[in-house]
């Protein structure tokens, strides 16, 4: 059983991970708004949750599939406290790119679209049970060391992705009521736009036209984080992205909004459990 982590930038433990979980399983690393260094597929088998990105919110039920591109901040709240059964698959871009062929791009589900929006497709019961069966095979073979298990895992992953990609392409993202409070969405938009600048609560009050205490409480309710913690998490996530793109730790520091390297290195290590250089080298 994995211990709960406070880290907001959550790369998967490998290029592909698949876990079939119930309400008793640990809640996907963090109850707070976070992001991953890999694409994530969340398939609801039972129960209901509310899921939020920085601009949208949606209630998910059995058969709903949430396709979350890497680096997009998100958070889920369980509505049915006695039931939350799901499949969680994390996949690196490189894996999907290598598995794609002409006419079937498996990265289609995760290509940039409306920034930070939610992309949801719905599976009927037959489709859901079929994907569930393939996910069991994927999970089992990813954990196996027997000869041939790697080939089987690759096959199950490709079948799942082909079916979800076809579903996504034939049934564009469904439109549903956005449960994200407009004031919180505007706050996130302002922070995103001014992330590398100094952001004071007074600036938010002026922009959002609400009392600072009310803004803070509303952001905390949706994200699980204080405004200050959210800004730090966003800056660290940006630094991670820049480091993965090959920028030096020094450049990543200042381009992600930290004004001195010592503070950046200390904050990064606290959030990520390793130094910026160690993160970049994959240690």
CATH architecture of the largest domain: Sandwich
The CATH homologous superfamily name of the largest domain equals: Regulatory protein AraC
**Overall spatial form:** globular
Largest sheet: 5 strands, antiparallel
The counted number of beta strands is 8
Uncertain segments are: 1-13
Helix fraction, binned, reads 40-55%
CATH class of the largest domain: Mainly Beta
Radius of gyration: 19 Å
Q: Structural class, judged by helices and strands?
A: alpha+beta
Number of helices: 10
Question: What is the CATH topology classification name of the largest domain?
Answer: Jelly Rolls
Q: Give the SSE order as H and E letters.
A: EEEEEEEHEHHHHHHHHH
How many domain modules? 2
Largest sheet, spatial ordering of strands: 1-7-2-5-8
Termini separation comes to 23 Å
Estimated share of beta-strand residues: 15-25%
Mean pLDDT: 89
How is this structure best summarized?
With 283 residues, the chain is an alpha+beta fold. The protein is built from ten helices and eight strands.
